[in-house]
Amino acid sequence: MDPHSGDIFERHPDLAWWKWRALPTHHQQRRFSLDGPTLDSPQLTSVRVSVGVTGCTLCLLSEAHVVPQVERPPPAMMYEALESLPHSCHWSVQHAEIADEGRAIAAAIRAGAAVAVSDGSLRYTLGTSAFVIKGMDSAHRIVGYNRVPGPAKDRESHRCELAGLYAIVTLVNCLCHHHRITQGSILVACDNTGALKPEAVDFLPKCSQKNLDLLQAIWKTLQESPIEWTTQHVYVHQDHKAKDSHRRLAALNCEMDALAKQHWAHIHAKVQLTPAPHISIRNEGWTMWSGTDKVVAPSRNALHSLLADQPTQMWWVRHNRISETAKDLVDWETCSTGMKALKPGRRRWITKHASAHCGVGTTLLTWKYQDDDHCPRYGRSESTTHVLTCTAMGANEVWNENLDKLAQYLTDSDTLPVLQEAILTNLACWR
Q1: How far apart are CA 136 and CA 115, in angstroms?
Q2: Per-residue pLDDT tens for 136-168?
Q3: Total-model pTM
Q4: What b/e readout covers 345-378, taking b as 16+ CB neighbours within 10 angstroms?
Q5: Is 220 helix (H, G, I), strand (E, B) or coil?
Q6: Taking the CB of the first residue and of the last residue of the chain, which one, N or C, has fewer CB atoms within 10 A?
Q7: Which residue(s) pair with 52 in the sheet?
Q8: Considering only 74-78, 322-326, 349-353, which range has the smallest mean pLDDT?
Q9: Are 143 and 118 in contact (CB under 8 A)?
Q10: Under 8 Å between Cβ of 34 and 56
Q11: Spatial distance between the Cα atoms of 58 and 41, rounded to a whole number of angstroms
């Protein structure tokens, strides 16, 4: 607000100033009307104000003096430019090694001859990625690596590939800003087709996609880039094939694969399998958290699980199906995967039997379909537990025959011997 005229100046995203002219004071709260765009600019003695807007009328809520901003000189070196980036993207580029201040790569970007390749390494829940940005020759290039922020799931390397691509986009944007590049192009190669999707012209992030935080961060950072981005998929470990038209890219991919594995071994020697920290990532947009865990795939099913899983698990505890201690030892995610692999009819049967809502004597008596709950073969109360423990004539033979079939199936399926023993021993406890 201008202290002399009493008018309020509003800064729009296009950096233009709009003026709100003060209205006559008839109320305790000061009001202003929209005057529109203006060539004037606020004076240095202006104060910052908080306002509320209703239609074309603005109400002054509070005011405070503007803290003078100290303008820093532009970074003189590329490493200083990286340091000046927001802290939320330092994890991706802090181990980058830059030759000749990136001048050769800047020239290659202007000429449309620059290439960038990344690859990731994941084992257990520890993930790393490595990347290289190369110009017209092999003498001048940028090479780096990073540890992938959590959560990283075993056997899902997609997040590692995205971490490498995010580092490339962040570095190239910083290089373009540092060397004042306004046009050019770069080719990005990767051996994971899913990780290359954010570079597509018509790509839009969706909540149902895995690793939405990194996908959205890459997509948004690409929108800020002054150059054009093209992609190329390379097949993993194909650099030895002479007929491969992308042999150069495949060789770089293999090199980054080795570098990512080397960095993985280095981190594993220091922190073992300590889970990677869940952090905020620049340009990821809105995020959803469950306690200290980031929800990186906030699909409808994932959110339903976060809201409903805990009450559902406590139902089993309250109805004495499992103990509260055992609840935390159950691998619910694996159970969910196994249930989804079954046919719908089988799924319904397991759910009804486990929750004691199937057609046994106790349930049929409750539903008033029969006058007693006796087992028709044994004479005792028939519950879902009794179905597994019934020792009527012929029941033991059927049980042993099916247990032998299960043991043979586990052997034929190369099931871990310790796991086989655990399954068969616990089943035998029912008899």
Answers
A1: 9
A2: 888 889 999 999 998 888 778 899 999 999 999
A3: 0.73
A4: eeeeeeeeeeeeebebbbbbbeeeeeeebebeee
A5: helix
A6: C
A7: 59
A8: 74-78
A9: no
A10: yes
A11: 19
169 vs 289: CA distance, rounded Å: 26
Contact 51, 60 (CB under 8 A): yes
Q: Which two tokens stand for residue 45?
A: 């003695």
What is the dotted CATH code of the domain comprising 78-271? 3.30.420.10
Per-residue pLDDT reduced to its tens digit, 271-312 = 887 888 899 999 998 888 988 889 998 889 889 989 999 999
CB 278 within 8 A of CB 290: no
Max Cα separation, the chain?
101
CB atoms closer than 10 angstroms to residue 122: 22
Q: Give the C-alpha distances (Å, rounded to integers) separating 150 from 95, 130, 155, 245.
A: 18, 17, 14, 36
CA atoms within 13 A on the CB side of 200: 12
Tokens 């910083």: give the residue. 174
Query: In sequence order, what are the residues at sequence separation of 6 or more whose Cβ sits closer than 8 angstroms to the Cβ of residue 281?
Result: 88, 89, 149, 166, 213, 214, 217
Domain assignments of the chain as residue spans, ordered by start? 8-65, 78-271, 300-428
